[in-house]
Amino acid sequence: MKYLLDRQQTARLFFRKIQLSDIPQWLPFFEDPQTHRHWIGEYKAPREQCEEWYRRQQQRYEEGLGGMNALIEKSSGKLIGHAGLLTQYVDGQKEMEVAYSLLPAFWRKGYATEAAVKCRDYAFGNNFADSLISIISITNTPSINVALRNGMHADRDTVYNMNDVTIFRIARAAWVAFGR
Fold this sequence. Notes:
By secondary structure, this protein is α+β, with helices and mostly antiparallel strands.
């Protein structure tokens, strides 16, 4: 579980491991068509999709592949999203991804950028990787903007899980130059 940001925090966010008791709070993410309009995949009922997502995160924890952390808004104590460091395989290459997802009510408030920056700094500060990526659907402009604010650049386009994506990347040297 070395890639988890459990108990880390930012000015407005507290990171912790996900819990199955979070499912009811996260279910609206899967019920809202806005949240997955950028991804192609097999349709499943929202509850089934949410429970499967949580099982995958638990499996990542158990296998040492990182995983998403629950993002808790400090001022309200509410679960507002997830962010974390994920071991991914893209085009046969092992990569470390900075990943983030928020409930729509918390979009456009800077939380995704705040969480992504914390993930980036935590990964580089702990020497987890020489570069980090974010895998973003080519149609997901808000997430692209978060990656750019996180100091990343568009590295290449590819297909990932049957989706057209852009791989955004930041190298450790760029992070140092970016001002950490």
